[in-house]
Amino acid sequence: MQIQVVKSKIHRVTVTGADLNYIGSITIDEALMEASNIVEGEKVSIVNINNGARLETYAIKGNRNSGDITLNGPAARMVQKGDIIIIISYGILDFEEAKTFKPTLVFPNEKDNTLT
């Protein structure tokens, strides 16, 4: 049996932009993507701390060390600049492997989304 488990999490980052006219996705600072083990194009879940909204989209690289966290396309309607969100990706593992798997968790500075 296989189960879905948390693979990566960027915990509590501040939304820096919302671009309704972009084709979709979430733009994430490249340094945060690397630190959290999230790759470009990977499906991610977004949880908005401010309003409780939950959505799924895919990750694209933002400029390294920019602190950029921008929701694009329809997802832009679910956030406002300044909202605090959690970004989560999942992996599918065999049940026994999942018991010992350790996800990559990143806790950036909420003020500027940098790693400290």
- Mean pLDDT across all amino acids: 96
Can you tell me the CATH architecture? Beta Barrel
- Which structural category do the helix and sheet elements fall into? mainly beta
Distance from first to last alpha carbon: 39 Å
Radius of gyration from the alpha-carbon trace, in angstroms: 14 Å
Backbone shape: globular
Oligomerization category of the chains in this entry: single chain
Low-confidence region ranges: none
* Order of secondary-structure elements: EEEHEEEEHE
Number of strands: 8
How many domains, in number, for the residues?
1
Protein name: Aspartate 1-decarboxylase
GO biological process, one term: pantothenate biosynthetic process
EC number: 4.1.1.11
Pathway: Cofactor biosynthesis; (R)-pantothenate biosynthesis; beta-alanine from L-aspartate: step 1/1
Folded structure, characterized:
With 116 residues, this protein is mainly beta. It has one domain: Barwin-like endoglucanases, CATH 2.40.40.20. It is 9% helix and 47% strand. It is built from 2 helices and 8 strands, in the order βββαββββαβ. It has helices at 30-36, 95-98; strands at residues 2-14, 17-19, 25-29, 43-48, 54-62, 69-72, 84-94, 104-106. Strands 2-6-3-5-4-7-1-8 form an 8-stranded mixed beta sheet. The relative contact order is 0.37. The model has no long low-confidence stretch (mean pLDDT 96).
Set out the fold topology.
Blueprint: E1 2-14, E2 17-19, E3 25-29, H1 30-36, E4 43-48, E5 54-62, E6 69-72, E7 84-94, H2 95-98, E8 104-106
